[in-house]
Protein backbone atom coordinates (compact mmCIF):
# COMPACT_ATOMS: atom_id res chain seq x y z
CA UNK A 1 0.00 0.00 0.00
CA UNK A 2 1.64 3.23 -1.18
CA UNK A 3 1.10 6.44 0.75
CA UNK A 4 2.72 9.86 0.51
CA UNK A 5 4.08 11.36 3.68
CA UNK A 6 4.48 15.01 2.83
CA UNK A 7 5.16 15.32 -0.86
CA UNK A 8 8.72 14.06 -0.97
CA UNK A 9 8.63 10.85 1.02
CA UNK A 10 6.88 7.65 0.00
CA UNK A 11 5.72 5.32 2.75
CA UNK A 12 4.94 1.74 1.81
CA UNK A 13 3.15 -0.58 4.19
CA UNK A 14 3.98 -4.19 3.59
CA UNK A 15 2.63 -7.42 4.92
CA UNK A 16 4.98 -9.97 3.52
CA UNK A 17 4.69 -8.72 -0.03
CA UNK A 18 7.37 -7.02 -2.09
CA UNK A 19 8.03 -3.72 -3.86
CA UNK A 20 10.65 -2.85 -6.41
CA UNK A 21 12.42 0.43 -5.76
CA UNK A 22 15.33 2.43 -7.09
CA UNK A 23 18.55 1.21 -5.56
CA UNK A 24 19.50 3.16 -2.46
CA UNK A 25 16.25 5.10 -2.19
CA UNK A 26 15.24 3.64 1.19
CA UNK A 27 15.49 6.28 3.90
CA UNK A 28 13.94 4.44 6.86
CA UNK A 29 11.94 1.37 7.79
CA UNK A 30 10.37 -0.30 10.77
CA UNK A 31 9.52 -3.95 11.16
CA UNK A 32 11.40 -6.64 9.31
CA UNK A 33 12.72 -5.88 5.84
CA UNK A 34 15.00 -7.64 3.45
CA UNK A 35 16.68 -5.70 0.64
CA UNK A 36 17.85 -7.57 -2.38
CA UNK A 37 19.49 -6.05 -5.40
CA UNK A 38 17.78 -7.11 -8.59
CA UNK A 39 20.24 -7.35 -11.43
CA UNK A 40 18.77 -6.03 -14.61
CA UNK A 41 15.66 -4.66 -12.93
CA UNK A 42 14.31 -8.12 -12.19
CA UNK A 43 13.45 -8.65 -15.81
CA UNK A 44 15.53 -11.74 -16.32
CA UNK A 45 18.46 -12.25 -18.59
CA UNK A 46 16.62 -10.95 -21.61
CA UNK A 47 15.55 -7.77 -19.83
CA UNK A 48 19.04 -7.27 -18.56
CA UNK A 49 20.53 -7.50 -22.00
CA UNK A 50 17.84 -5.23 -23.44
CA UNK A 51 18.51 -2.58 -20.84
CA UNK A 52 22.25 -2.77 -21.40
CA UNK A 53 21.77 -2.36 -25.13
CA UNK A 54 19.14 0.38 -24.95
CA UNK A 55 20.92 2.44 -22.33
CA UNK A 56 17.70 2.55 -20.30
CA UNK A 57 19.49 1.16 -17.29
CA UNK A 58 18.10 1.19 -13.82
CA UNK A 59 19.40 -0.38 -10.68
CA UNK A 60 16.51 -1.77 -8.75
CA UNK A 61 16.20 -3.49 -5.43
CA UNK A 62 13.46 -5.70 -4.14
CA UNK A 63 12.20 -4.92 -0.68
CA UNK A 64 10.22 -7.62 1.08
CA UNK A 65 8.98 -7.79 4.62
CA UNK A 66 6.57 -6.75 7.31
CA UNK A 67 6.16 -3.15 8.38
CA UNK A 68 6.59 0.27 6.83
CA UNK A 69 9.40 1.32 4.54
CA UNK A 70 10.05 4.92 3.55
CA UNK A 71 11.61 5.93 0.23
CA UNK A 72 12.88 9.27 -1.09
CA UNK A 73 15.13 10.45 -3.87
CA UNK A 74 17.09 13.71 -3.73
CA UNK A 75 14.16 15.59 -2.23
CA UNK A 76 12.29 15.43 -5.51
CA UNK A 77 8.52 15.44 -5.50
CA UNK A 78 6.81 12.08 -5.62
CA UNK A 79 3.62 11.31 -7.52
CA UNK A 80 1.53 8.19 -7.12
CA UNK A 81 0.17 6.43 -10.17
CA UNK A 82 -2.51 3.76 -10.01
CA UNK A 83 -2.50 1.14 -12.73
CA UNK A 84 -5.51 -0.99 -13.58
CA UNK A 85 -4.10 -3.20 -16.23
CA UNK A 86 -2.90 -0.29 -18.33
CA UNK A 87 0.63 0.62 -19.18
CA UNK A 88 2.73 3.45 -17.77
CA UNK A 89 5.58 4.86 -19.82
CA UNK A 90 8.17 6.61 -17.69
CA UNK A 91 11.81 7.57 -17.88
CA UNK A 92 13.86 5.14 -15.80
CA UNK A 93 15.40 8.05 -13.91
CA UNK A 94 11.93 9.17 -12.82
CA UNK A 95 10.71 5.79 -11.59
CA UNK A 96 11.05 5.47 -7.83
CA UNK A 97 9.08 2.39 -6.83
CA UNK A 98 6.51 -0.08 -8.12
CA UNK A 99 4.39 -2.78 -6.56
CA UNK A 100 6.15 -6.11 -6.72
CA UNK A 101 3.43 -7.47 -8.97
CA UNK A 102 3.91 -4.92 -11.74
CA UNK A 103 5.91 -5.89 -14.78
CA UNK A 104 8.58 -3.51 -16.00
CA UNK A 105 10.14 -3.45 -19.41
CA UNK A 106 11.61 -1.21 -22.05
CA UNK A 107 10.06 0.23 -25.15
CA UNK A 108 11.13 2.24 -28.12
CA UNK A 109 10.12 5.89 -28.07
CA UNK A 110 11.57 7.14 -31.30
CA UNK A 111 12.14 10.80 -31.89
CA UNK A 112 10.55 11.91 -28.66
CA UNK A 113 13.26 10.28 -26.62
CA UNK A 114 15.92 11.76 -28.78
CA UNK A 115 14.51 15.24 -28.35
CA UNK A 116 14.51 14.83 -24.58
CA UNK A 117 18.10 13.80 -24.50
CA UNK A 118 17.07 10.65 -22.70
CA UNK A 119 17.86 8.17 -25.40
CA UNK A 120 15.57 6.36 -27.73
CA UNK A 121 14.03 4.02 -25.18
CA UNK A 122 11.82 4.38 -22.18
CA UNK A 123 10.69 2.19 -19.30
CA UNK A 124 7.24 0.65 -19.22
CA UNK A 125 5.33 -0.52 -16.17
CA UNK A 126 2.19 -2.62 -16.55
CA UNK A 127 -0.23 -4.65 -14.52
CA UNK A 128 -2.45 -3.92 -11.54
CA UNK A 129 -1.02 -1.90 -8.68
CA UNK A 130 0.68 1.30 -7.78
CA UNK A 131 3.84 3.02 -8.90
CA UNK A 132 5.61 6.12 -7.62
CA UNK A 133 7.34 8.51 -9.99
CA UNK A 134 9.56 11.46 -9.13
CA UNK A 135 9.50 14.93 -10.64
CA UNK A 136 11.26 18.26 -10.23
CA UNK A 137 8.43 20.14 -8.57
CA UNK A 138 4.97 18.59 -8.17
CA UNK A 139 3.78 17.05 -11.42
CA UNK A 140 0.63 18.26 -13.13
CA UNK A 141 -1.53 15.45 -14.42
CA UNK A 142 -3.27 16.28 -17.67
CA UNK A 143 -6.03 14.22 -19.22
CA UNK A 144 -5.95 13.62 -22.93
CA UNK A 145 -9.21 12.72 -24.63
CA UNK A 146 -10.11 12.52 -28.31
CA UNK A 147 -11.52 16.06 -28.35
CA UNK A 148 -8.62 17.47 -26.31
CA UNK A 149 -5.23 16.51 -27.70
CA UNK A 150 -2.26 17.83 -25.75
CA UNK A 151 1.14 19.20 -26.72
CA UNK A 152 3.96 18.90 -24.23
CA UNK A 153 7.45 20.33 -24.07
CA UNK A 154 9.88 17.39 -24.20
CA UNK A 155 11.86 18.80 -21.28
CA UNK A 156 8.84 18.88 -18.99
CA UNK A 157 7.44 15.46 -19.90
CA UNK A 158 7.97 12.74 -17.31
CA UNK A 159 5.44 9.98 -17.92
CA UNK A 160 2.18 8.99 -19.54
CA UNK A 161 -0.31 6.18 -19.21
CA UNK A 162 -3.27 4.85 -21.10
CA UNK A 163 -3.97 4.44 -24.75
CA UNK A 164 -2.11 7.36 -26.27
CA UNK A 165 -0.55 7.97 -29.61
CA UNK A 166 2.36 10.31 -29.55
CA UNK A 167 3.76 12.21 -32.43
CA UNK A 168 6.64 14.53 -32.70
CA UNK A 169 5.86 18.09 -33.65
CA UNK A 170 8.50 20.31 -35.00
CA UNK A 171 8.10 23.98 -35.61
CA UNK A 172 11.55 24.36 -37.02
CA UNK A 173 11.45 26.85 -39.85
CA UNK A 174 13.98 28.99 -41.59
CA UNK A 175 13.44 31.49 -38.77
CA UNK A 176 14.78 29.02 -36.23
CA UNK A 177 17.93 28.70 -38.26
CA UNK A 178 18.23 32.45 -38.28
CA UNK A 179 18.02 32.53 -34.50
CA UNK A 180 14.53 33.94 -34.43
CA UNK A 181 12.67 30.79 -33.55
CA UNK A 182 9.69 30.59 -31.29
CA UNK A 183 11.69 28.92 -28.55
CA UNK A 184 9.25 26.04 -28.48
CA UNK A 185 10.35 24.33 -31.64
CA UNK A 186 9.86 20.74 -30.52
CA UNK A 187 6.74 19.39 -28.91
CA UNK A 188 5.29 15.98 -28.30
CA UNK A 189 1.67 15.76 -29.28
CA UNK A 190 -0.50 13.22 -27.46
CA UNK A 191 -3.76 11.99 -28.92
CA UNK A 192 -6.17 9.34 -27.72
CA UNK A 193 -7.26 8.54 -24.17
CA UNK A 194 -4.98 8.74 -21.18
CA UNK A 195 -3.03 10.81 -18.72
CA UNK A 196 0.19 12.75 -19.19
CA UNK A 197 2.45 13.82 -16.30
CA UNK A 198 4.44 17.02 -16.72
CA UNK A 199 6.79 18.67 -14.25
CA UNK A 200 7.03 22.44 -13.68
CA UNK A 201 10.61 22.53 -14.81
CA UNK A 202 12.45 21.74 -17.99
CA UNK A 203 15.35 19.40 -18.36
CA UNK A 204 18.05 20.52 -20.70
CA UNK A 205 17.18 19.21 -24.08
CA UNK A 206 18.61 19.70 -27.47
CA UNK A 207 15.42 21.58 -28.21
CA UNK A 208 16.01 23.95 -25.31
CA UNK A 209 17.88 26.53 -27.29
CA UNK A 210 16.01 26.31 -30.53
CA UNK B 1 -2.35 20.85 -1.04
CA UNK B 2 -5.20 18.50 -1.49
CA UNK B 3 -3.50 16.35 -4.08
CA UNK B 4 -1.09 15.10 -1.43
CA UNK B 5 -3.81 13.90 0.87
CA UNK B 6 -3.02 10.41 -0.30
CA UNK B 7 -6.14 10.20 -2.37
CA UNK B 8 -4.18 10.22 -5.58
CA UNK B 9 -3.31 13.13 -7.79
CA UNK B 10 -5.81 15.56 -9.25
CA UNK B 11 -6.25 15.05 -12.93
CA UNK B 12 -6.70 18.18 -15.00
CA UNK B 13 -8.28 18.60 -18.38
CA UNK B 14 -9.08 21.76 -20.35
CA UNK B 15 -12.42 22.19 -18.62
CA UNK B 16 -11.03 21.94 -15.07
CA UNK B 17 -7.84 23.90 -15.59
CA UNK B 18 -8.13 27.43 -14.20
CA UNK B 19 -8.18 30.40 -16.53
CA UNK B 20 -5.24 32.75 -15.97
CA UNK B 21 -4.57 31.36 -12.52
CA UNK B 22 -2.25 29.00 -10.69
CA UNK B 23 -2.68 25.25 -11.08
CA UNK B 24 -0.40 24.75 -8.11
CA UNK B 25 2.36 26.88 -6.57
CA UNK B 26 4.73 26.05 -9.39
CA UNK B 27 2.51 26.00 -12.46
CA UNK B 28 0.41 28.74 -14.00
CA UNK B 29 -2.32 28.29 -16.58
CA UNK B 30 -2.98 30.93 -19.23
CA UNK B 31 -6.16 30.84 -21.29
CA UNK B 32 -5.87 32.19 -24.78
CA UNK B 33 -9.00 33.06 -26.74
CA UNK B 34 -7.56 34.41 -29.91
CA UNK B 35 -5.49 36.69 -27.74
CA UNK B 36 -1.77 37.03 -27.34
CA UNK B 37 0.74 36.75 -24.50
CA UNK B 38 4.41 37.48 -24.38
CA UNK B 39 6.44 34.75 -22.75
CA UNK B 40 10.04 34.01 -22.10
CA UNK B 41 11.45 31.29 -24.30
CA UNK B 42 11.20 27.77 -23.00
CA UNK B 43 8.77 28.39 -20.13
CA UNK B 44 5.78 26.69 -21.75
CA UNK B 45 5.52 23.11 -20.47
CA UNK B 46 2.30 21.94 -22.11
CA UNK B 47 -0.80 23.22 -23.90
CA UNK B 48 -4.24 22.20 -25.06
CA UNK B 49 -5.75 23.66 -28.19
CA UNK B 50 -3.96 25.33 -31.05
CA UNK B 51 -1.35 27.84 -30.06
CA UNK B 52 1.43 29.27 -32.18
CA UNK B 53 4.72 30.45 -30.80
CA UNK B 54 6.52 33.04 -32.81
CA UNK B 55 9.72 34.89 -32.22
CA UNK B 56 9.52 38.62 -31.72
CA UNK B 57 11.15 39.08 -35.09
CA UNK B 58 8.11 37.59 -36.84
CA UNK B 59 6.95 40.17 -39.35
CA UNK B 60 3.25 39.83 -38.61
CA UNK B 61 3.82 40.82 -35.01
CA UNK B 62 5.48 44.10 -35.81
CA UNK B 63 2.60 46.26 -34.65
CA UNK B 64 2.23 44.44 -31.37
CA UNK B 65 5.92 44.60 -30.68
CA UNK B 66 5.97 48.28 -31.49
CA UNK B 67 3.30 49.05 -28.93
CA UNK B 68 4.29 46.80 -26.07
CA UNK B 69 7.90 45.76 -26.38
CA UNK B 70 10.54 48.40 -25.84
CA UNK B 71 13.58 46.34 -25.32
CA UNK B 72 14.78 45.71 -28.84
CA UNK B 73 18.03 44.03 -27.89
CA UNK B 74 16.18 41.71 -25.59
CA UNK B 75 13.96 40.37 -28.29
CA UNK B 76 15.59 37.01 -28.86
CA UNK B 77 14.58 35.85 -25.37
CA UNK B 78 10.87 36.43 -25.85
CA UNK B 79 8.18 34.84 -27.94
CA UNK B 80 4.56 35.67 -28.59
CA UNK B 81 2.00 32.94 -28.02
CA UNK B 82 -1.27 33.32 -29.88
CA UNK B 83 -4.22 31.15 -30.67
CA UNK B 84 -6.85 29.55 -28.53
CA UNK B 85 -6.46 27.02 -25.78
CA UNK B 86 -4.92 26.65 -22.38
CA UNK B 87 -1.21 26.81 -21.84
CA UNK B 88 0.81 25.83 -18.76
CA UNK B 89 3.83 27.88 -17.75
CA UNK B 90 6.52 26.92 -15.25
CA UNK B 91 10.11 27.78 -14.52
CA UNK B 92 12.64 25.35 -13.02
CA UNK B 93 10.18 24.37 -10.28
CA UNK B 94 10.29 27.86 -8.79
CA UNK B 95 7.21 29.42 -7.25
CA UNK B 96 5.17 31.28 -9.85
CA UNK B 97 2.54 33.92 -9.24
CA UNK B 98 0.53 36.32 -11.27
CA UNK B 99 0.17 39.99 -10.48
CA UNK B 100 -2.29 42.55 -11.76
CA UNK B 101 -1.26 46.05 -12.61
CA UNK B 102 -3.89 48.77 -12.88
CA UNK B 103 -2.49 51.69 -14.74
CA UNK B 104 0.67 51.24 -12.72
CA UNK B 105 4.30 50.43 -13.04
CA UNK B 106 6.46 47.69 -11.67
CA UNK B 107 10.15 47.03 -12.01
CA UNK B 108 11.31 43.45 -11.73
CA UNK B 109 14.56 41.53 -11.93
CA UNK B 110 14.79 40.30 -15.51
CA UNK B 111 15.31 36.63 -14.61
CA UNK B 112 12.07 36.56 -12.63
CA UNK B 113 9.63 37.66 -15.30
CA UNK B 114 7.95 34.76 -17.11
CA UNK B 115 5.12 36.16 -19.17
CA UNK B 116 2.90 39.21 -19.57
CA UNK B 117 -0.18 40.41 -21.40
CA UNK B 118 0.41 42.71 -24.35
CA UNK B 119 -1.74 45.37 -22.67
CA UNK B 120 1.35 45.98 -20.59
CA UNK B 121 4.41 47.59 -22.08
CA UNK B 122 7.75 46.04 -21.27
CA UNK B 123 10.67 48.41 -21.01
CA UNK B 124 14.24 48.00 -20.03
CA UNK B 125 14.84 49.68 -16.70
CA UNK B 126 17.53 52.29 -16.18
CA UNK B 127 18.76 50.01 -13.41
CA UNK B 128 20.83 47.37 -15.16
CA UNK B 129 19.38 43.87 -15.00
CA UNK B 130 15.83 45.01 -14.34
CA UNK B 131 12.77 45.37 -16.53
CA UNK B 132 9.85 47.73 -16.07
CA UNK B 133 6.24 46.94 -16.91
CA UNK B 134 3.88 49.85 -17.43
CA UNK B 135 0.14 49.85 -18.00
CA UNK B 136 -2.82 47.68 -17.10
CA UNK B 137 -2.78 43.93 -17.28
CA UNK B 138 -1.54 40.69 -15.83
CA UNK B 139 1.96 39.30 -15.66
CA UNK B 140 3.49 36.12 -14.29
CA UNK B 141 6.69 36.10 -12.30
CA UNK B 142 8.76 33.38 -10.69
CA UNK B 143 10.59 33.59 -7.40
CA UNK B 144 12.67 31.36 -5.23
CA UNK B 145 10.16 30.78 -2.45
CA UNK B 146 6.93 32.75 -2.00
CA UNK B 147 6.99 36.50 -2.55
CA UNK B 148 6.45 38.93 0.33
CA UNK B 149 5.21 42.44 -0.19
CA UNK B 150 6.74 45.20 1.93
CA UNK B 151 6.00 48.88 2.37
CA UNK B 152 8.83 51.39 2.20
CA UNK B 153 10.79 52.88 3.89
CA UNK B 154 12.72 49.66 3.93
CA UNK B 155 16.22 48.36 3.37
CA UNK B 156 16.50 44.99 1.66
CA UNK B 157 19.19 42.49 0.88
CA UNK B 158 20.25 42.71 -2.76
CA UNK B 159 19.82 38.98 -3.31
CA UNK B 160 16.31 38.89 -1.89
CA UNK B 161 14.98 41.74 -4.01
CA UNK B 162 12.55 40.68 -6.72
CA UNK B 163 11.21 44.07 -7.74
CA UNK B 164 9.34 47.15 -6.72
CA UNK B 165 6.22 49.01 -7.74
CA UNK B 166 5.39 52.69 -7.75
CA UNK B 167 8.40 53.83 -5.74
CA UNK B 168 11.09 55.39 -7.85
CA UNK B 169 13.88 55.51 -5.32
CA UNK B 170 16.01 52.40 -5.37
CA UNK B 171 19.41 53.26 -4.00
CA UNK B 172 22.37 51.61 -2.34
CA UNK B 173 22.87 51.78 1.39
CA UNK B 174 26.16 50.99 3.05
CA UNK B 175 26.73 50.37 6.70
CA UNK B 176 29.39 53.02 6.90
CA UNK B 177 30.22 52.67 10.55
CA UNK B 178 31.26 49.12 9.97
CA UNK B 179 32.93 49.47 6.64
CA UNK B 180 35.00 52.62 6.66
CA UNK B 181 38.55 53.03 7.82
CA UNK B 182 41.42 50.66 7.43
CA UNK B 183 39.90 47.92 9.57
CA UNK B 184 36.63 48.15 7.70
CA UNK B 185 38.41 47.82 4.39
CA UNK B 186 40.31 44.79 5.61
CA UNK B 187 37.16 43.21 6.92
CA UNK B 188 35.34 43.70 3.66
CA UNK B 189 38.23 42.44 1.55
CA UNK B 190 39.25 39.44 3.57
CA UNK B 191 36.20 38.55 5.57
CA UNK B 192 38.48 38.41 8.64
CA UNK B 193 37.22 39.92 11.82
CA UNK B 194 33.60 39.30 11.13
CA UNK B 195 32.13 40.53 7.91
CA UNK B 196 28.45 39.81 8.38
CA UNK B 197 27.72 39.90 4.68
CA UNK B 198 24.99 42.41 5.36
CA UNK B 199 26.96 45.64 5.10
CA UNK B 200 25.28 46.57 1.87
CA UNK B 201 21.57 46.89 1.27
CA UNK B 202 19.17 48.42 -1.19
CA UNK B 203 17.07 51.19 0.28
CA UNK B 204 13.57 52.20 -0.76
CA UNK B 205 11.65 55.21 0.48
CA UNK B 206 8.41 56.82 -0.61
CA UNK B 207 5.03 55.33 -1.36
CA UNK B 208 4.88 51.98 -3.10
CA UNK B 209 5.51 48.27 -2.65
CA UNK B 210 8.70 46.27 -2.57
CA UNK B 211 8.64 42.60 -3.58
CA UNK B 212 11.01 40.21 -1.83
CA UNK B 213 11.60 36.51 -2.27
CA UNK B 214 12.05 34.38 0.80
CA UNK B 215 15.45 33.16 -0.24
CA UNK B 216 18.77 34.73 -1.09
CA UNK B 217 19.35 32.46 -4.04
CA UNK B 218 19.18 34.53 -7.17
CA UNK B 219 17.52 33.19 -10.24
CA UNK B 220 19.63 33.05 -13.36
CA UNK B 221 19.92 36.46 -14.84
CA UNK B 222 18.24 36.91 -18.19
CA UNK B 223 20.21 39.13 -20.49
CA UNK B 224 18.28 42.38 -20.77
CA UNK B 225 20.22 43.37 -23.81
CA UNK B 226 22.87 46.02 -23.98
CA UNK B 227 21.88 49.60 -23.35
CA UNK B 228 22.75 52.24 -25.92
CA UNK B 229 26.40 53.18 -25.71
CA UNK B 230 25.93 56.73 -24.55
CA UNK B 231 27.38 58.86 -21.86
CA UNK B 232 25.00 59.12 -18.93
CA UNK B 233 23.40 55.72 -19.45
CA UNK B 234 24.08 53.48 -16.46
CA UNK B 235 25.73 50.23 -17.39
CA UNK B 236 26.69 51.40 -20.86
CA UNK B 237 30.39 51.29 -20.06
CA UNK B 238 30.89 54.77 -21.51
CA UNK B 239 32.64 56.95 -18.95
CA UNK B 240 30.83 60.11 -18.02
CA UNK B 241 32.83 63.20 -18.69
CA UNK B 242 32.31 65.06 -15.47
CA UNK B 243 35.14 66.60 -13.46
CA UNK B 244 34.12 64.82 -10.28
CA UNK B 245 34.02 61.39 -11.87
CA UNK B 246 37.05 59.23 -11.86
CA UNK B 247 36.93 56.71 -14.65
CA UNK B 248 39.70 54.54 -13.41
CA UNK B 249 40.18 51.15 -11.83
CA UNK B 250 36.95 49.20 -11.44
CA UNK B 251 35.89 49.08 -7.82
CA UNK B 252 35.22 45.97 -5.85
CA UNK B 253 31.64 45.66 -4.69
CA UNK B 254 31.29 47.25 -1.31
CA UNK B 255 34.44 49.27 -1.66
CA UNK B 256 33.76 52.87 -0.85
CA UNK B 257 36.50 54.68 -2.70
CA UNK B 258 40.04 54.35 -3.84
CA UNK B 259 42.69 54.50 -1.18
CA UNK B 260 44.43 57.46 -2.70
CA UNK B 261 41.17 59.36 -2.74
CA UNK B 262 40.60 58.55 0.84
CA UNK B 263 43.96 59.97 1.70
CA UNK B 264 43.21 62.99 -0.42
CA UNK B 265 45.90 62.33 -2.99
Automatic annotation (TrEMBL), chain A:
Domain of life: Bacteria
InterPro entries in alphabetical order: AIM24, AIM24_sf, Trp_RNA-bd_attenuator-like_dom
Protein name, entry field: AIM24 family protein
Gene source species: Streptomyces aquilus
